[in-house]
Amino acid sequence: MDAKELFDQTSLECGKLITQRYSTSFTLGIQTLDKKFHQSIYAIYGFVRFADEIVDTFHTHDKAKLLAEFRQETYKSIELGLSLNPVLHGFQMIVNKFDIDHELIESFFRSMAMDLDFNTYNDDRYLEYIYGSAEVVGLMCLKVFVDGDETTYQRLKRPAQMLGSAFQKVNFLRDIKSDFEERGRVYFPGVAFEQFDKSAKVLIEEDIQKDFDEALVGIAQLPDGAKLGVKVAYLYYQKLFDKIKGLSAAKITHERIRIPNSQKFSLLIGTYFGSKLGLS
How far apart are CA 229 and CA 279, in angstroms? Predict the structure, then answer.
């Protein structure tokens, strides 16, 4: 391995470390993908995770400036094919290798910027935010999975978006308390935190289930090396969603809902063997 290859490999491994530190569920899902996909998906997650940290974590800094600089450095790295920021270097490698549309990246940054400006969302802002913060991430991953097969990409584009949408909306429900108390945000349009009740919760859950149902059709059509990993992520979020559905509106506005790691591992093992036996 020459010096440049060592730099590339080290940068890609940073994406893996970030994923492992920040998300047990996504780490488990990635591990059940074909190994050829691992580094690419880790790199995508590392990129979006760090951008998200800018708007959610660095409260004593100028977040708008940090995000603008991160955006500028992202495009610079893609153009040069190089960055001394290992997260951006790993990400640009994947963008350039799989020809990821820059519009997806720009939509992502627009949604991150929305978190700096908007505390409540109307229907248009809500849909735009979900597209840029979640659906485009699914499309970036799909670009990796299809590896240049544009026909398959276009066929699975809508289900991939719906899977990202379902995941994000479940996160919104799970985090409704912390988003409001720590960041002053309520993502669901027309919903006031203080008046969040059963009827509002049911309407949101019906919308999420439609996304899950549409996404499942696409998962079954993914390339074999990607299908299992995406199915694990789907099942984890469906289980989390089912747990939330079984709780009252008051309950989820008073505590964050979690799936214990032991249950996550059970999902992984059950899905793996079910797939091998042709049961899932």
Answer: 15
